[in-house]
Specification:
seven-stranded mixed sheet; 28% strand; Deoxyribonuclease I, Chain A; 22% helix
Length: 353
Amino acid sequence: MKEQYKPNILLPSLAGRGWGWVFFLLLLPLSLPAQVSDTLRVMWYNVENLFDCNDEAGKDDEEFLPEGTHQWTPYRYWQKQRAVAQVIAAIGDQRLPDLVGLCEVEGDTVLTDLTRRSPLRTAGYQYLVTRSPDERGIDVALLYLPGRFRPLSHQSIPVRGGDRPTRDILHVKGLVTPSDTLNLFLCHLPSRRGGERQSRPFRLLAAQALRHAIDSVHQANPQANVVVMGDFNDNLTDTRVAQAMGVVPSSLASSHLTPGLVSLIAGKQLGTYAYQGRWEVIDHLLVSPSLLNPTTSLSTRPSLARIAALPFLLTTDTKFGIPIPHRTYQGPRYLGGFSDHLPIVVDFVKQCE
């Protein structure tokens, strides 16, 4: 039977899983000042190929068209939009995340639909997005609640070199309190296409571009609060990519004098991505040491960061017998799931004056 375009209904398979109340809350008008609390919740999510249904000139997005190999119809597109909205709402745990980093999004159209036409439409999210030279046309983006984060500036940082163009790094500077500024860097480093070792030089180029941008921030203000989130396609454990970015071991996470960046996710149980029966942590949240000092007005610690392995985001790998992310596609085969990655989340403690 031909699929029908139904942009305003809930996914039947989702509503039956006990998450319908989340959408009910989202449909209620939100009063953002009433939601102010003593924590700032930050989320990162690789949403797996959130394309619109239109052919973008000069981009290799033909497989995600209604007539393409993936048969990416409006019906499937709106299912995906509602699925992404449900994940963001579920991460909020009855309170929406204040900041949401996303990758594998195809620009303004999908973000406008997510923030204005999906079940998130009453939340009031605004967004910032790169416009990268990526061959497929995918970008990184930040959703933010204006009552909780006020952008002061933003820029796209290009990654130069390599044999193919890749995603820009999004740098957003903004206020989370009248006196606390965050420098957010959102990244989607080059994939492992062609093999991990063969593709590593391209990730190193991106890591070096990121490090240069962060060093510039710290040269201006050595105590600047920096948060890096993204899909690094690397586990950042004793790797050249980690060294290039200045990532220090998590054992030093309690020291606010330690230079470099500390991963809040590395070493967590399970992982963010499963490949051939093995879980890996390739999505990360990194922070500067200034954010690990509990005596400051804004701080966090590794115990406040987690991989959101929510049951409805998982399915069983019949070949290896392990839980894996319930993804949207397996090759060209449509599975109707959420993403091939799990989201990650961290809370920052805000000291009330």
